[in-house]
Amino acid sequence: MLAALAMVIVLAGQDVETAADSVTLRDGKVVLGQWVEPAPRGKIALVVRRSWAETAIPDRFKVWQAAESPWVKRARADRIRRLEHWKGESPVEAIARWIDDELERLKGSDDTSPLMIVTINRGDARKIVRRQPDSARKLRQAWRGKFDDAETRPVGELTSALEGRGFAMSDVDAATIDDLLPVPAETEPRWRARRAATEVALDPSCKFVQYQGLVLPEGKPAEMPDASGAVGGLLKSLLGGEAQEDPLVGKGKELAEKGRVGMLVTKLETAEDLSGVRVEIILYARVDETRWEKATARFMTVRGDEIRPNEGGNIGNDPQVQGLFRTIEGLGLDLPADLKQKSLNIGAATQRALGLARTAIQPDLDALALPVDRPGRNSK
Question: What is the band of 21 on the pLDDT scale with cuts at 50, 70, 90?
């Protein structure tokens, strides 16, 4: 009897499966959606497509909609208040324009979201089926693509349909769905992190690269910092150059004076024995006038002996790097050939580590940042 009453959790691997997690209720009805963790104690939380729930389980849908209405209104009012405060701090034009559009959207309609988060008492669940992460990602992609049978189409057919729409078939596309959900109730630290991620997405001047006591603007979005700078900083250190005090403090003060809350810093570190490099990308959120805290961070390390023989060739052919070596030799310093090669290897390792770190942190930034490219947004 106990076995018959026990709730069963099954991971993907059934005969014909869809991309949706499912919860079979005591009355035999099935809720399709995607598992959310953590859930309130004694509850199951699922992301459910609103139009699917309204059609498939209308009685449950009415209960869920009534339950979410009060907190959605409060969260919406909090979001509007926070955006107006943000605008009052006189951000750059691109951010001000984005805030205006967002305020207009929030105030102009109730903006019923395509997705909703619902909770189910664990005692009401007879069976739970959870899908593998790859299938879960495809369900999110199908929701983004507005598939009207995202929850019920066999996963093989859904995969083909997604490929036909040009969706990425790897975890490079994390398929975030925050913008498809109601405005969430958020703590002040969570809001600061969201605002920070949104600022760095909209304003490239909030992005910096730090190495060998220097903090420089990152440059154009998606553009790798000049690896020759890493080589130059390394050689300066090897030749006895003194490290400066941390200049990041000054950058933080400058951004605070401009009303910014976000700062994205890529830190490059070289091992003292030249064995490799460490790249850490950090999103900082400002807490007060002088204090910044990490909102999210990712790091990658690459050893010099992982670099292929010709991988540093492009850096060695860089006119800046060649000029740097000529300058040092012109000072009468005999730069050993093996030191030159180690420096080039460090430059190549830096480029590789940068690419890996950026790939690792992008899903975190996407999950935090508010949508900056909603359809119909003013692009002037």
Answer: very high
Burial track 29-59 (b if 16+ CB lie within 10 A, e otherwise)? eebbbbbeeeeeeebbbbbbbbebbeebbee
Phi-psi label, residue 376: left if phi above 0, alpha if psi -120 to 50, beta otherwise: left
Q: pLDDT tens for residues 173-220?
A: 667 888 899 998 899 999 999 999 999 999 888 999 887 778 888 864
Report the pLDDT value the prediction gives residue 8, as an integer from 0 to 100: 39
Instruction: Give the model's pLDDT for residue 173.
Output: 67
